[in-house]
Write a structure and sequence with these properties.
This protein has 2 domains: 7-102, Ribosomal Protein S8, Chain: A, domain 1; 107-313, P-loop containing nucleotide triphosphate hydrolases (Rossmann fold, 3-Layer(aba) Sandwich), CATH 3.40.50.300. The chain is 43% helix and 17% strand. It has helices spanning 14-21, 26-35, 52-70, 77-89, 97-102, 119-130, 144-157, 184-188, 193-203, 205-214, 245-252, 287-295, 315-335, and strands at residues 7-10, 38-42, 45-49, 107-108, 113-114, 133-137, 163-168, 217-221, 233-237, 260-265, 275-277, 280-282, 301-305. Belongs to the PhoH family.
């Protein structure tokens, strides 16, 4: 079988080609490792050796990344990984990964600019920017909470709202806040660590601490939301799978003038205790799943569902999440026999 001819790319700027390749060709190495191709540069040309489908995907990734460089967007290994992920998801779509990475879905915060790293993230960020109520559901590591915090920060510093309110149900410790030692902040803060990490990255610790003192950023357990009408704010409910349907309805009806709500969680991972019935214990309905079933399809409400393939942490995390999901499916199948 004759050896397949390589795909040839020619770039107009040697400097941008160097940026495309990365330091010590690190970006090219990422593409080679992910797609099983070989990339060879010579002058302002780049040859792609490998099977036609993978070579075609490498060509699209390289062209899209070069287009970003031409538009003044710096390229890092994370951008290369994002382009690989996006290209894989939109190969048969009219929208290119360059469009997804450099378009209106970029979230600008004081500390950094965030770009979608999967097709689902692109849909999610677009929904956060356009809709009053957005649900982001799916497994850990997909960026649903991090991106929601970043979008809230972007809107706050852009003066689209005057306040961010962060909340989540306090269930994990199996204790009531009143019985935990310390001040209110010392009691609630450990449960909100993932939100704090996102604030550190997008605002800087010192700045968001001052904003918390001034009331621009408010942190409260879900129970403290009852009876309030929240105006001119972004309200973010994290770990929403640990709400009851009654708690979820209470939260959703706090929405006031010029406010938005971002709700994140994984309906499959509820920590709610089971309900005792005459026939034994049964799973307690969770408010996130109930709300999605009730509100899906309504105007100005968007539900974005992430999958195991959308995990953007260490590649092993996606493998772990997929393995657990498959094991749960097998167990459920056996129970249904």
């Amino acid at each position: 079988m004759p050896e397949q001819s390589p795909l040839q790319l020619t770039f107009s700027s040697n400097q941008l080609l160097q940026d495309l390749c990365g330091r010590h060709d690190a970006h090219l190495q990422l593409i080679e490792d992910n797609l099983g191709v070989q990339l060879v540069t010579r002058g302002n040309q780049l040859a792609i050796f490998g099977p036609a489908p993978q070579a075609g995907q490498a060509k699209q990734v390289l062209e899209d990344l070069y287009e970003l460089l031409k538009n003044g967007v710096a390229i890092s290994p994370s951008q290369v990984e994002a382009a690989l992920r996006l290209t894989d998801g939109v190969l048969d779509n009219s929208m290119r990964s360059a469009d997804l990475l450099s378009g209106s879905t970029v979230i600008a915060t004081p500390q950094l600019k965030l770009m979608p790293r999967s097709v689902t993230q692109h849909r999610y960020v677009s929904a956060l920017q356009k809709n009053t109520l957005v649900f982001g559901t799916g497994p850990a590591g997909t960026g649903k909470t991090y991106l929601a915090v970043a979008q809230a920060v972007s809107m706050l510093v852009g003066r689209q709202v005057s306040r961010i309110i962060l909340t989540r149900p306090v269930l994990e410790a199996g204790e009531r806040l009143g019985f935990l030692p310390g001040t209110f902040e010392e009691k609630i803060d450990p449960y909100l660590r993932p939100l704090f990490d996102a604030l550190d990255d997008t605002l800087g610790r010192e700045r968001w601490a001052k904003m918390r003192e001034s009331g621009q950023i408010e942190i409260a357990p879900l129970a403290y939301m009852r009876g309030r009408t929240i105006k001119d704010s972004i309200m973010l409910l994290d770990e929403a799978q640990n709400t009851t349907p009654t708690q979820m309805k209470m939260f959703l009806t706090r929405l006031g003038e010029n406010s938005r709500m971002f709700v994140t969680g994984d309906p499959a991972q509820s920590d709610l205790p089971p309900l005792r019935t005459p026939n034994g214990y049964v799973p307690q309905p969770n408010g996130l799943k109930d709300a999605i079933e009730t509100l899906d399809g309504l105007r100005d409400i968007e539900i974005v569902r992430f999958r195991e393939s959308d995990v953007v942490r260490h590649p092993l995390v996606s493998t772990i999440v997929t393995a657990y999901a498959e094991r749960e499916r097998q167990l459920n199948f056996k129970l249904g026999e």
